[in-house]
Amino acid sequence: MKNITFTADEDLIRKAREKARREHRSLNKLFRRWLEESFFSEALSVGLETGYRWYDSLVVVSALKSGSTILYSEDLEHGRVLRGLRIINPFL
């Protein structure tokens, strides 16, 4: 498995550690559960709705969760609007 580093507010990290301790879980397991609940099920939904591959669906969900209204991609359907997110191929 590949390591990924995120930057977050120290208070947020402290609260996450406290929650993990209360639930008798590691911060890693808590983070994985959050990813599964927040991204994976929605990415599956996007994939079923669009026919996009898994990683493309994760990119779309990440853009949606961040509040983006435009996603630049040469791999996805230019001009498509998905849940308020417009996909634009910058090379067209």
Strand order of the largest sheet: 1-3-2
Q: Say how many strands there are.
A: 3
Oligomer: single chain
Count up the domains: 1
Number of helices: 3
Q: Give the averaged pLDDT, no decimals.
A: 87
The dominant shape is elongated
Secondary-structure-derived class: mainly alpha
Calculate the terminal CA-CA distance, rounded to whole Å. 36 Å
Overview of this protein structure:
With 92 residues, this protein is mainly alpha-helical. It has one domain (10-88). It is built from three helices and three strands, in the order H-H-H-E-E-E. It has a three-stranded mixed β-sheet with strand order 1-3-2, covered by helices on one side. Strand 2 and strand 3 form a beta hairpin. Helix 2 (27-50) crosses helix 3. The longest helix is centred in the middle third of the chain and has 24 residues, at 27-50. The model has no long low-confidence stretch (mean pLDDT 87).
Topology:
Blueprint: H1 10-22, H2 27-50, H3 54-65, E1 70-72, E2 81-82, E3 85-88
Parallel strand pairs: 1-3
Antiparallel strand pairs: 2-3
Helix pairs in contact: 2-3
Characteristic key phrases:
single chain, 92 residues, mainly alpha, 3-stranded mixed beta sheet, 10% strand
